[in-house]
Amino acid sequence: MGVAYSSGAWTAKEDEGDAFVEAWTEFARWLSTMPGAGTARLTRDLSEPRRYLSFAPWDTVEEMHAWKSNPEFRQRMGAVREHVADFTPSELELIAEV
Fold it and tell me: pTM of this prediction?
């Protein structure tokens, strides 16, 4: 298996977009210290400003799973989820690159 990606589709609570971005940024700073982690990115939907999509590459799926198994993961993710109405996580693998 090649590069793996962790991804999330987020919908911020009403009037909590800035707080969500701040919490996600802190979470991503921590993520970036994990072995195998690449640069995490957060995007916002231009037509639905409360909707966001995040993604981060990982060298291996095993390193991604080790991050999610870290004892701090649940607490740090919880701090982000306080500001969202909906969250759908995904694990992806790179299939093609042009």
Answer: 0.94
